[in-house]
Amino acid sequence: MKTAPRLVLSALLLVGAGYALAKEPPLAVVSAVDLKRYSGMWYEVARLPNRFQQQCMADVTADYQLRDDGRLSVTNACRLADGSIDRAEGEARIASDQGSNAKLEVRFAPAWLGWLPLVWGDYWIIELAPDYSYSVVGTQSRKYFWVLARNPSLDEAALTAILLRASKRGFDTTAIVRTLHQ
Questions:
Q1: What pLDDT is attached to residue 16?
Q2: Which is nearest to 153 in space by CA: 127, 178, 117, 128?
Q3: CA contacts within 13 A on the Cβ side of 133
Q4: pLDDT tops 80 at residue 85
């Protein structure tokens, strides 16, 4: 019977480890996106800080263009501290043919590396205004988050409501930075 306490202790440790390693609850996305309407220029209004935008001081934009193959060409741009513009070219694809086309993956690595899964990053559209005037993008990990709009600014009440909903979804909205547009 001496093994029974060890077995119980082991089981409890495994259950505890399972809770500790549990992922965030599933992140809901919009049911469908008209990628033709989604195409065009978007202005970043706010974001969670991330390593690949550290150099961006202002005027962050994303331009999406629907391609004949159903993918999107992506051009991200931002103003650097010295006033110059930094651009990154990439592409977006629908992550899966199962479920919503609001789960996209984006790649900025060279096209010849596109076969590697790790060069693709999640781009999930979790909110989209009915008139496509704003979009909220996040990732399942809750590490990445952007509020995009068709204009450089968004009504303060609308932005506050978006951030409140994002907080309820598990995003750390206390760390949000707002994007300056000149």
A1: 37
A2: 178
A3: 9
A4: yes
